[in-house]
Amino acid sequence: MESLNHTLFLWLNAPKHPNAWVLALAIFFAKHLIWAVPLAISIGWLRGHEGTRKAMLVATAAGVLGLLINQAIGLAWSHPRPFMIGLGHTLIPHAADSSFPSDHLTLWWAVAFSLLFQRGQRGGGIGLALAGVPIAWARIYLGVHFPFDMLGAIAVAAVGAWLALRAVRWYLEPGYQLAAAIHHRLFGKLIALGWVRA
After folding, report:
1. Quick one: which of 186, 164, 160, 158 has its CA closest to 45?
2. Which of 5, 104, 193, 196 is 20 to 30 A from 39 in CA distance terms?
3. Domain containing 42 — which CATH number?
4. Which among 174, 198, 183 has a CA at the least distance from the CA of 61?
5. Vertex 152 angle, CA 92 and 2, to 5°
6. Is residue 9 part of a domain?
7. Which pLDDT does position 190 carry in this prediction?
8. Tell me: the pLDDT tens digits for 165-184?
9. Residue 42 — pLDDT band, cuts 50, 70, 90?
């Protein structure tokens, strides 16, 4: 399996001197697009109704659970990144920590799967899930992940989203009440102006 992982990596990894436009696009997908997740959750909370806000809280819980599972996997089994074993070309700096599963993709797909699993949010979930594909490609292309790291991220993200939905009765209502109270305290003036939903 590791041999297949290496072969697929070398097939997808950038050449030593990549096209400048492809490199710029890959860097955008790999390093910057991840900020769309907190931005989308924030917009959903600030402009959405109660159902949307609760969906954003569940999506946040799914992302956090996915990242916690990743940490546990990394502590139990440390898998080197391609550059740690001298494989391929690495075009962005990255810490020499465990590669499996990808934290970027786990967070992204955990939020996507959470929205897919929730009625009324499936369109956003499909869009996020599809946008995760170029992120996965970019992380491999730039040399910081293996293809199997992305498959692991899909599995962990699905588990995180499932657990977050299974446990809603334990955290959603108190979490929503606390978040709503903080929201009113922070955005009271903007709510009065009608810029932010109450």
Report:
1. 186
2. 193
3. 1.20.144
4. 174
5. 80
6. yes
7. 74
8. 999 999 999 999 998 899 88
9. very high
